[in-house]
Amino acid sequence: MAEVLQQDPMRVTVLRGGPGAPMRPETFEVPLYESQTVLDVVSWIQQNSDPTLSYRFACRVGMCGSCAMMVNGVPRWTCRTHVQKVLVGGAIEVGPLRNLPVIKDLAVDMDPFFDKWVEAEGRHHPTRTRDDGIAPIDPESADRQQATAGIECINCSVCYAACDTVAGNPDYLGPAALQRAWTLYNDEKNADRGSILDAVSGKGGCHFCHSMGSCTIYCPNELNPLAAIAGLKSATARRFFGRRDR
Questions:
Q1: How far apart are CA 225 and CA 216, in angstroms?
Q2: Which pLDDT belongs to residue 121?
Q3: Which of 24, 6, 8, 27 is nearest to 16 (CA)?
């Protein structure tokens, strides 16, 4: 068993509530252990103080992103966030991801986030059927490099929670959906780039981005949604003025 680092427990304030129940803070005293993560803290509370606390997690090793929550007002993967790096005056605050409906306590409804992917035409439009051979792709080509840059997005919604434009404009597609659109736009195996530009240039599209960069700052996988959105802005502008680079 891990050694307790100090006699006095830390104070952990958890924002709790859900539909029909206004969010309220509730504070717990939790022992501070070596190498303890915020997810460990939330699990300790659920296992030792209040079994009704609701939250979401899966892999616990920084691969799935499902444990994302707000920690001291910042969206983070809680399984990768060590307590000693975020503890302020012996206390931390944990809440549900911003910009998404709360199901209960720390668990949010991800449907609006994925609905934006659909609206951004974030699905593959194949150039071949399953009966055709696999098309060769040059991994060093400019298009492939652009597509590869955002392909490691795992849909954790940290960028969506960090985005102030999403907070102020519920129609805005958000950085993850727009990054997915840019990835597919640059994929040589994608057959319908026009439909992608149609989707991202309309209401709530890429031109509503204020280029604040929170999406890039907080992405746990160190992706750059801001650059992807800038690429979409450029591509839609070129099409508007009748210029084609493909």
A1: 6
A2: 93
A3: 24
Identify the residue whose tokens are 């974030």.
Answer: 122
Task: Compute and round to an integer the Cα radius of gyration of the chain.
Answer: 21
SS3 14: strand
Mean pLDDT by 10 residues, the chain (246 residues): 71 95 96 95 97 96 94 97 95 98 98 96 87 86 86 95 96 97 92 93 94 96 96 94 68
Residue linked to tokens 């599209």: 205
**pTM assigned to the model:** 0.91
Distances (CA, A) of 53 to 78, 87, 179: 16, 21, 33
Task: Sketch out the chain's domains with CATH numbers.
Answer: 10-108 (3.10.20.30), 111-240 (1.10.1060.10)
What are all long-range contacts of 205-208, with beta carbons under 8 Å and residues at least 24 apart? Answer: 205/120, 205/173, 205/178, 205/232, 205/236, 206/173, 206/178, 206/232, 206/233, 206/236, 207/233, 207/236, 208/165, 208/169, 208/171, 208/172
